[in-house]
Amino acid sequence: MKYIDEYRDPELAQKYAAAIAKVVTRPWTIMEVCGGQTHAIVRFGIQELLPDTVELVHGPGCPVCVTPLEMVDKAIEIAMRDEVIFCSFGDMLRVPGSKKDLLTVRAEGGDVRTVYTPLDTLKIATDNPDKQVVFFAVGFETTAPANAMAVHRAKEKGLGNFSVLASHVLVPPAIEAILSSPDNRVQGFLAAGHVCAVMGTAAYTPLAEKYQVPIVVTGFEPLDILQGIYRCLRQLEEGRSHVENQYQRAVRDIGNVSAQALIRKVFRVVERKWRGIGEIPESGWALSDAYADFDAERRFGLADIEVEEAQNCISGLVLQGLKKPADCPAFGKQCTPDQPLGATMVSGEGACAAYYRYRKDELYE
To answer: Is the pLDDT of residue 1 over 70?
Structure first.
């Protein structure tokens, strides 16, 4: 398929692997900060193409996975109400809360619906004026423009029965949290191309300079990732630490200016808790004062809650690049896609889900 097969050419992949082997003279650890890249790395065996001295670790690049347990429980509390139609992307339905998930709420009679765009929820709200329609607005910068547009149009239309449960998170503060950790062992990053297509690359330059790490904005196909790794390793070997844009066919340094303007209008930057990681300053978006009437937490009077993660789940360590899924004693045993302990096993971008789907048989040999 044009524009797909050309980025999956096995001969070119081998050439990139050979070029990487030539440039590497010492051990390096690189983190990809995108669940889509993680799945590509595991699916296409990219780690196995690299020298033993180059290790790829998986970062907090799955927005579903880092949505805090408390927020999932709030979603479940709202969805259980008789007057509510609760809308969400499909990945969130299987994410375990402290007692159940949204799919269970639907099985128990709750009106929980899967949508493919937040704008679908506006029609649902228009068609059901006697119901409160709530959209679970999760994601990184990638999904923020569409979520912001839904809220903006709801205000324009005067849809008083529409609100969002907002749990947006931002990538650059998460990278800084990893780099500033005393346990950090990451020396270079592959940044998510789709995030930068929206926000541009400027936010990564201060991080590269402050922590002296190369950051390469990278696409999602095997050759994209191999080229991103090669560029990152070249910088490491040469003692450079800059932001490079491998994904130039989709990313401009300034990003999407119109989308950024809409995001600034609808959202404000807040501290956000990341599941398995904890509080990260200025790492999230909540609704701005001008759109506060569409805040589901405020509308339904949800109080702050504190809940504990499953003790035998190491997904927090996986999200920080400190462990890999196969290091978890529960992986594939007590924790499976049908009975997950953590979100990383059920999300379409979760690292544990990738290992279970593509490497389970190999791990159990």
So the answer is: no
Banded model confidence at residue 2, pLDDT cuts 50, 70, 90: low
Beta bridge partners of 57: 31
Distance CA 320, CA 276 (A): 9
CA-CA distance, 96 to 343, in Å (whole number)?
Answer: 7
| Interior/surface letters 146-174, b for 16+ CB within 10 angstroms, e for the rest | ebbbbbbebbeeebebbbbbbbbbbbbbb
CATH H superfamily, domain 26-356: HypD, alpha/beta domain 2 (3.40.50.11740)
Q: What is the mean pLDDT of residues 253-270?
A: 97
What is the bridge-based pairing of β-strands 215-218 and 111-114? unpaired
Mean pLDDT of all residues belonging to the chain: 93
CA distances, 193 to each of 21, 23, 44, 116, 352 (Å): 25, 24, 19, 21, 22
> In the structure encoding, which two tokens stand for residue 124, read together?
């649902």
- Give the pLDDT of residue 131: 98
